[in-house]
Amino acid sequence: MNGMERTLESFVKAGVPVIIWGPPGVGKTSAVYALARKMGAKLAVVIASIREPVDFLGLPFPEENKKVFHYLAPDWADRVKTWTEEGHKVILLFDDLVTARTEVTNSLLRVILERVVGEVELGPTVYPIATANPPELIGGFPISPALANRFAHLRVEVDAQFIRDWTEEFPGYWGSEPALGINTDAWRMARAKVAAFVRAQPHLLYRYEEGAMAFPSPRSWDFVSRTLAVTDDADFRVVAALVGETAAIEFAAWYREANIPTPEELLENPQLILTLERSDQKYAALSAVTATVLGLQPREAVKFWGGLQSVINVLADSGDVDIAIPFAVKTAEYYFRRGMGILPGISLSERLIKPIREAGL
Description:
Layout: H1 3-13, E1 18-21, H2 28-39, E2 42-47, H3 54-57, E3 59-62, E4 69-72, H4 75-85, E5 90-95, H5 102-106, H6 109-114, E6 116-117, E7 120-121, E8 126-132, H7 135-138, H8 145-148, E9 152-155, H9 160-169, H10 184-200, H11 218-231, H12 236-243, H13 245-256, H14 263-268, H15 279-294, H16 298-301, H17 305-317, H18 321-337, H19 349-358
Parallel strand pairs: 1-8, 1-9, 2-5, 5-8
Antiparallel strand pairs: 3-4, 6-7
């Protein structure tokens, strides 16, 4: 989990409403979906731009024979209320908030702060999150200071740290892999290849040019990985339709020369990783085998610890410590967080200490 996701989770657990700002396609909505899966929470998505103020303030109706008005809540609010009464946590996502008119966003003031819609109290286990593209980038409507002050503001910047975190986490899908109805193993392998390519060509993770319909972004590379899982072929036309022609040319050429062993082959024969010459190939192979093992339930994963540790150690012993370290750490964290103790078998300490001493640090 990267820094933004950790911060998002902290705010949600503290009951602090959050708005995530960032350009299109960088994974704002995906991060919320992943957090809901991780928390075991229900997710209610409300597109404010297709709503009216009464959808949040409540629709007034008179009480029979009395000069009293009540305020009816919409169906989504009743559904959220039902979930909380059943004991569920609920993430309430207002997606693409700045596409809603100002009078609509102003009607959210009580919803965000008090979790109340009309006369319906949603419950204390409702966690409001909003996503928004900066208005100066795509147009839209500014939100009022009163609404802005009800949120913690997280900003997604596609900088070097973001790219590094994305390439490390994407093969394992941030530990919260959705069910898509496609071959899981094939998709993990495809994600590992995409991540390795982006690690080698970091400028192509996100590159928007004004007027472009298809352009590289974390979202579009995710779509590329899904098509690869189905076709096992980097067809130029398919990739170009998702990330644009420039990125597609480079990716298709890289993919044809990748020749990555499958996770099954590496687990059976860890020495195979030494047959790979380029660091991007080694990264793809190691990320694929790690994602495969860590994507299993602990009772199944335990059968493959020895093989995975051997692959990591073989690569580190060959001098590629920089590639091995993130996956050694990820594997050890998986092992430790599931109450299995300290992971034996990965002996990187001396390999890490030596270069530090040589650097005089």
